[in-house]
Specification:
Chain lengths: 293, 517
């Protein structure tokens, strides 16, 4: 029994902890059960007694916690947090079967580079508007609110500022005809129509509100947003899981790509710890972090 | 030295001179969709050459601009409906459906519905600082579709469209408006109303444009307090705008008084009509100013509420990523090729996970074999109707009807005159009245008279079908009725026996005439 239990514990855990508490197959089943609850993103521990009990056990019984973590890792999942408010918040690791691929998300995005960018940007903009300040992202109690039309207007406003700045600087932002990849990203969003009338009164899928709307409804299915009303093209509020996902995974990953492109100067190696006063100033004129330096 | 040496070989002296050309090329490009309307109309299936599409297009831009309100935009149906009279006037002989088709086609062409961006693109060339020639894309829209509060799609004209329309490129909003209004005043003083109307309309376009500028500023405030400078820029802007409104309001009211006077004093019918139109336009300007002022007054409280929400929240223990300042804004400045990398990375991690779906054959079999759910074939229980007794308002009572029918129950071989029946009815009615029943002789006589008149056209067919054996009939033989209450012919009233079994129509007719004789 003890030998099997040691096979289940991750190798980096302290061997002393495994000694007194032998782990039975029933424990493994429970740990796997907890992970399966975690995969049902819309389910909350407060709504399901068994789920709540397993979350409590995870927090109070460290060997069990490690076991659940190991099960999740083995399945290609990253555990972000296990708590009463978020449940077992798991995210798909890269190349995991649970990961969402752009091609599955939108067929058009798979082939068109502009659409691929617009869909990605829509998700980024939803997050940026849901957590407008760094503190909002850090504050566990914060609930963000977004509307579909608001996200579109928010990005358009940012694009307009860049356009005005380019005009003030006298730069010609019209892209060269033979190099579409060099067109400034903001122009792609600004150029796309915000909405459009369709024959069957549905939202025009290729319009920016259509793209944002697809993003938010996808996030609702992921248990990241909850719809509160139909106002302004759909009003949504964030869940704890979305905050975790953006804060602990997505923000950092996108930031790393930016750093890789040489856009953001590496101040202290951790881009999540930007000085607040600097960021204030930057938001004030909606400028760029590297521009102030 | 090298620059001077290069000059003769270079076609353009540099980016500064090039800019004016580029701007004019862009202005020219904005008119292209309008010219395009007339050149593309031959592609429409049907005979559309007699419509001048550019005119319709410009009218459409006018209509959208004038119907745009502060929040949303112009309603598509209203624009289409108002466009129809002009199209109909161009070709009055054609069907309304065709006019509607032209209106829709023009509007959709100006939105450029077929393209993915729903906009236009023109290509122009510039010389770089090093003399290198680059072709560039200029993207623009004339009418754009925007989402409304109610989820509908509304139309707004873009700045490009307004500029094309007004024909004044690169002009300052405020000064252009002042200029337009001064011009208007002068024109009115000189009595040149035709020109005055043009100037007034231009002033209105300027007003709309001004409102649009302010709307954007306020919208930005609502989204992020710190994105807007509330220390100086915005208060200045609001003060300026309020001053502007007060100024315009005074100005336009003065103009309004002047034009009203011109309208009332003018003897020329055409002048009167133009002045009346002008009054409408200026009124509309004033309405727009009032609307703008309301928004400006709301701006302060809005800022304070947003500041409470955004700025005075307790600072968090940890600091997170500034998603806007550190991610979104830098990404937007990148070239498209690079920008896709961070957005892809964000997308891959911020969309959550999906459990892969796989079909289990066992489930499929179960699903297919499950009988459909029985539905309740009796619907919901009906509520017991709440019945209210209606008062009996019939003119004659049951007893009176009985007495009348009794009087008219005549033997088949002894028809009577109406005068006799009426006399009988009066005496019988009086007797009924004495018995404590309602009614009197006159009432019963009236009922008898009615029944007799009714019998003048006896329902033979009905009686025949229903198999009745007797039928009351009345015939006029020319004798006048001498009665205090009724006038007309003294009818002969009698009963006809019907042979319900025999069904012989001729016999029945013969009997009827025989009895009448």
């Amino acid at each position: 029994m003890t030998t099997t239990s040691e096979a289940w514990t991750p190798p980096e855990s302290e061997p002393a902890a495994a000694g007194p508490a032998p782990i039975s197959p029933a424990d493994v089943a429970e740990a796997a059960r907890l992970v399966s609850f975690g995969l049902q993103a819309k389910l909350l521990p407060a709504r399901d007694a068994e789920y709540g009990e397993l979350v409590r056990r995870y927090r109070e019984d460290p060997p069990f916690g490690r076991l659940a973590d190991a099960v999740a890792t083995g399945m290609g999942l990253v555990v972000l947090e296990v708590s009463a408010r978020a449940g077992m918040a798991v995210a798909a690791a890269e190349d995991s079967v649970f990961a969402v691929r752009m091609g599955d998300y939108s067929r058009r995005a798979a082939s068109e580079s502009t659409d691929r960018f617009l869909h990605g940007l829509a998700h980024l903009a939803v997050a940026a508007l849901a957590f407008p300040r760094p503190e909002d992202l850090a504050d566990d109690g914060y609930l963000g609110r977004v509307t579909v039309n608001g996200v579109d207007a928010f990005v358009r406003q940012a694009c307009r500022r860049l356009e005005e700045r380019a005009e003030a600087e006298g730069t010609n932002t019209d892209p060269a005809s033979d190099a579409p990849g060099l067109e400034a990203a903001w122009r792609v969003w600004a150029r796309r129509s915000a909405t459009g009338a369709t024959k069957d009164a549905r939202r025009l899928a290729g319009s920016t509100t259509g793209i944002v709307s697809k993003a938010v409804s996808f996030l609702v299915d992921s248990g990241f947003l909850q719809k509160t009303s139909d106002d302004s093209g759909g009003t949504y509020r964030t869940t704890a899981r979305y905050q975790l996902q953006v804060r602990d995974l997505a923000g950092g990953a996108a930031m790393a790509e930016l750093l890789d492109l040489g856009v953001v100067p590496v101040s202290d190696g951790t881009p999540t710890l930007a000085p607040p006063d600097e960021s204030d100033e930057l938001v004030a004129d909606a400028g760029l972090p590297f521009h102030a330096l | 030295m090298t620059a001077i040496a290069d000059q003769p070989t270079r076609p353009a002296p540099g980016p500064a001179a090039d800019e004016g050309l580029a701007r004019r090329l862009k202005a020219l490009a904005c008119t292209a969709p309008l010219h395009d309307l007339d050149s593309r109309k031959v592609n429409l299936a049907g005979e559309y050459a007699s419509y001048t599409m550019a005119e319709v297009g410009l009218a459409a831009i006018d209509l959208v601009t004038l119907n745009m309100d502060f929040d949303t935009g112009a309603d598509r149906d209203i624009v289409l409906a108002r466009l129809l009279p002009r199209i109909a006037a161009q070709n009055p002989g054609r069907a309304t459906a065709e006019h509607e088709r032209v209106a829709r086609w023009v509007l959709e062409s100006l939105i450029n519905v077929g393209s993915v961006d729903r906009g236009f693109r023109a290509v122009y060339g510039t010389f770089g600082p090093d003399g290198e020639y680059t072709r560039r894309d200029y993207d623009f829209k004339l009418i754009e579709e925007v989402p409304g509060q109610d989820g509908g799609v509304y139309l707004r004209t873009t700045d490009e469209a307004v500029n094309v329309l007004v024909g004044a490129l690169d002009t300052d909003v405020t000064s252009a408006q002042i200029a337009a209004e001064v011009k208007l005043e002068v024109l009115i003083r000189r009595g040149r109303l035709a020109d005055a109307q043009l100037a007034a309309e231009q002033a209105r376009y300027r007003t709309v444009q001004y409102a649009e500028t302010l709307r954007r500023a306020l919208e930005a405030t609502r989204r992020n307090v710190r994105a807007v400078d509330w220390m100086e820029t915005v208060p200045d802007l609001i003060d300026e705008a309020l001053d502007h409104i007060a100024d315009r309001y005074r100005h336009e009211n003065a103009i309004l008084t002047n034009i009203r006077k011109a309208r009332d004093e003018s003897v020329d019918g055409e002048h009167k009509r133009r002045a009346a139109e002008l009054v409408d336009i200026v009124k509309d300007c004033i309405r727009r100013h009032t609307q703008l002022q309301t928004r400006l007054l709301e701006a302060g409280p809005l800022f304070r509420a947003e500041q409470d929400r955004q700025a005075f929240a307790a600072p968090a223990a940890r600091s997170g990523i500034d998603l806007y300042g550190q991610l979104l804004a830098p990404v937007l400045t990148l070239p498209l090729g690079d920008a896709t990398r961070p957005t892809d990375a964000f997308f891959a991690r911020a969309t959550g996970l999906r459990t892969p779906v796989s079909v289990r054959v066992a489930d499929l079999v179960d699903l297919l074999l499950t009988p459909p759910v029985e539905r309740e074939h009796l619907g919901a229980e009906l509520p017991e109707p709440d019945l209210v007794a209606t008062p009996d308002d019939s003119r004659f009572s049951e007893a009176q009807l009985e007495a009348a029918l009794d009087l008219l129950d005549l033997p088949a071989d002894a028809p009577r005159r109406l005068s006799g029946l009426l006399a009988d009815a009066r005496s019988r009615g009086a007797a009924l009245g004495e018995d404590g029943e309602d009614g009197d002789g006159e009432e019963l006589a009236y009922l008898v008279a009615l029944l007799a008149v009714h019998a003048a056209s006896p329902p033979v067919g009905t009686a025949y079908r229903q198999g009745e054996e007797r039928l009351l009939f009345a015939v006029d033989d020319g004798t006048r009725l001498d009665d205090p209450g009724f006038g007309g012919a003294d009818l002969i009233v009698g009963s006809a026996l019907l042979d319900a079994v025999g069904m012989a129509a001729d016999r029945k007719d013969a009997k009827g005439t025989g009895a009448a004789g």
